[in-house]
Amino acid sequence: MRGSPAEPKPFDFVPFDTMPQRQEPVGHGRWNNERFTGSFDCQLRVLSPVHIGSGLLDLMNGQVVRGFVKHGEQLIIPGASLKGVFRSIAEAISASCVSKTQARVQDLPIRGIEECSDAKQLCVCCRLFGSLGYLGRVRYTDAQPVQQTLAIVRIPSLHRPHPETQIYRDQRRRYRGRKFYYHGKLSQGQEPLQAMAEGSLFAFRADFENLTEAELHLILIGMGIIGGLKPKIGGAKPVCLGSVEVTVEHMTIYEPAARFLDYDMAPRSFTEDEWQRLQNASTLVCKDALNKLQSILAYPS
């Protein structure tokens, strides 16, 4: 209705406030016993229905629905989807480039924050997650269902956002920042999606190599393991799908130098001192950006 106040939008922006700090990445063959190499065995719990679209239609309970991505006959959350979500959070709270965007370089509010293009000069997230010409040091397996409830969720039709919700005018069009959606109550509509229902559990593994304490701290915040963030994954985020919680079930550390000397050497877990230091190693985290993101991704909103 004309003249009525607009409804509040279910998203906010984390501003581009920090220039990327680019440097030469660590080589994959240069091991350092002061760095961490190992893995996290994780569980992902669905807080609101999750839909990872396959791009195909499926038949469920006699209805044609938008299908959930599968590997063979098994429904999964792809490791690439996990990596993209965790990377977007880590980029927003660190001195990192804008790795994937439809924005033109001249429309970004700070010159120099565009995606890294030199494999020998990378920002912290490109050094961790990878960039063109450089294999990252963090990898995620596909998340396999442990306890699943498949449901049909009906949502409103989603439309391309109006340009003025993504940019502001300051003599010329510029982008506000990185966009994140709040958690909230699912909106109801007529469009059917195949989704994992609230309470479903998935298991996946995160492998990492040659990370400093500060780099591992940034990864853990991006995954929502520390820092109080609850990531959102998959499609239909504007209608409040996709809220998840990630927890660590088991942590494994390898001693690279010792493994070269003893092939059968068993891995170990983090010590309490190491885990305590990791939770406080915040030198790569921009506090203002983290506070802003916590106000968006804290659960419940």
Characterise this structure.
It contains six helices and 17 strands. It is an alpha+beta fold and about 300 residues long. Strands 2, 9, 10, 16 and 17 form a five-stranded antiparallel beta sheet that branches. Strands 1-14 form a two-stranded antiparallel ribbon. A two-stranded antiparallel sheet has the order 3-4. A hairpin with a 2-residue loop joins strand 3 (about 55-60) and strand 4. The protein is globular, with a radius of gyration of 20 Å. Mean pLDDT is about 85; it is low at about 1-5 and about 165-170.
What is the residue-averaged pLDDT?
Answer: 86
What is the first-to-last residue Cα distance?
A: 27 Å
- How would a crystallographer describe the biggest sheet? 5 strands, antiparallel
Q: What is the C-alpha radius of gyration, as a whole number of Å?
A: 20 Å
Secondary structure class reads alpha+beta
Helical coverage, percent range: 10-25%
Roughly what fraction of the amino acids lie in strands? 25-35%
Shape: globular
Total number of β-strand segments? Answer: 17
Secondary structure layout plus pairing:
Layout: E1 11-15, E2 36-46, E3 53-60, E4 63-68, E5 70-71, E6 74-75, H1 79-92, H2 124-129, E7 130-131, E8 134-135, E9 138-140, E10 144-147, E11 150-155, E12 167-169, E13 173-175, E14 177-181, E15 191-196, E16 201-211, H3 213-222, E17 244-254, H4 256-261, H5 272-280, H6 287-297
Antiparallel strand pairs: 1-14, 2-16, 2-17, 3-4, 5-6, 7-8, 9-16, 10-16, 11-15, 12-13
Helix pairs in contact: 1-3, 3-5
